[in-house]
Amino acid sequence: MAKGPAQLRLDRLLSNLGYGSRREVQQLVWAGLVTLDGEVIEDSDQRILIKPDLVTRMIVDDAPLDPPPGLALMMHKPLGVTCSHKELGPLVYKLLPERWRRRDPAISTIGRLDKDTSGLLLMTDDGALLHKIISPRSNVSKRYDVTLDRPLRGDEVELFAAGSLMLEGDDKPLLPAHLDVASDKRAFVTITEGRYHQVRRMFAAVGNHVTALHRDRVGGLALPDDLKAGEYRLLSAADLEKVLEARI
């Protein structure tokens, strides 16, 4: 039997979304700053149905409610920021609204892009969704725009597609990958694995060096041309369906 929408007490809901402690949320309610369907909520322990349209029906402190749990977004990750909660230096999470960084469950990246790689990064607070996308069973592809230091030697398309390429330090060959050559020093490579620095190591294995790396697609979802570096956008159900499309 399908489960109905979850219910949460208002104070717990808003606290989990980062609006403050339950005491601080209670003060928002007492001040008349929380409304649902145009009516002021007077009791902080009122139970709220968590439905997708809640963001259009609830107002908190004169602004629409933040997305409830189940949030998923795409970010155009800029160069120089790290996909980590703990490392020093600029972090991708600091590109999100400050309140979103206090959410419980926390927002996490779906896979990672290294500090020197830009492009499409997915993030969510839904653990089940995260694991579904990164699971090898889902076979979700990732496409990278690669700029190289030296011209391609000519056999990379066949070698990457063969499923026999071994990376230094690994004990099994890579799965087949697809390479589209754009010019002698630029190519698009599509992979379904996520080994450490995989694309850079693939080209190192054929005697080349990656000078720029940009991910422009995950599954069937492309990075929008109008999403600038450092910007993000919430994902729709249709977007998530595209993510899970296999593209190799």
Tell me about this structure.
This protein is of the alpha+beta class and 248 residues long. The chain folds into three domains: 7-64, RNA-binding S4 domain (Structural Genomics Hypothetical 15.5 Kd Protein In mrcA-pckA Intergenic Region, Chain A); 72-136 and 228-243, Pseudouridine synthase I, catalytic domain, N-terminal subdomain (Alpha-Beta Plaits, 2-Layer Sandwich); 141-218, Alpha-L RNA-binding motif (Alpha-Beta Plaits), CATH 3.30.70. The chain is 20% helix and 26% strand. It is built from seven helices and 15 strands. Strands 7, 8, 9, 10, 11, 12, 13, 14 and 15 form a nine-stranded mixed beta sheet that branches. Helix 1 packs across helix 2 (22-30).
